[in-house]
Design brief:
With about 180 residues, the protein is of the alpha+beta class. It has one domain. Helices cover about 20% and strands about 20% of the residues. Strands 6-7-8 form a 3-stranded antiparallel β-sheet.
């Protein structure tokens, strides 16, 4: 476990941490891993793996096609509420942010898919911690060049979709495993 902010920012080997270096956050949300840990092949037990970017796409398409969008439609990516857990997410309380399809709007309607995504935040490539309670970031096993890799993102307010992004491999994100 790497706790030092500067040491984290220069890592080129596998590492993990708990959000804010607080063990209680790891117990609640799980560890944050850099992409080198994802690529190490040591995170998943036998018969499990970190999903590729394409496997995340398959999950997204399946949920959309089967009516898991917040409005029960089968077009467009509006699946954030169906993936997010019913607890630990911040609630949208500011006027203008109370959009029905966002995770933070009425948490009781979250998690129709049973995925139970938690907002564990992330550790930036500069070593700082961000977004616990308001965002969940999950690595894929797919690189995007020498220094970046793809991940998925859920945010409690403003967005109703499962976002796809790429960022520096030195960042710390959560990991979900997929059965082989």
């Amino acid at each position: 476990m790497v706790t030092d902010k500067i040491a984290w920012s220069y890592l080129t080997t596998a590492a993990y941490c708990s959000y804010d270096n607080d063990e209680s956050n790891m117990n609640k949300y799980g560890a944050l891993y850099n992409w080198h840990a994802v690529n190490s092949g040591k995170l998943a037990p036998k018969c499990w793996h970190v999903p590729s970017d394409e496997e995340w796409d398959i999950l997204e398409r399946h949920l959309i096609a089967n009516g898991y969008n917040w409005d029960r439609t089968t077009e467009g990516n509006k699946i954030a509420k169906s993936l997010a857990a019913k607890m630990h997410w911040e609630r949208a309380t500011v006027p203008g942010t109370r959009v029905p399809g966002t995770i933070g709007y009425d948490l009781t309607e979250n998690n129709r898919s049973g995925f139970s995504a938690l907002p564990g935040g992330h550790r930036g490539n500069e070593g700082g911690f961000h977004d616990i309670g308001s965002g969940g970031h999950w690595w894929s096993a797919t690189e995007n060049g020498a220094s970046r890799a793809y991940y998925r993102l859920l945010v409690y307010v403003s967005f109703d979709n499962l976002g796809r992004h790429d960022y520096y491999k030195s960042c710390g994100h959560s990991v979900r495993l997929l059965r082989d």
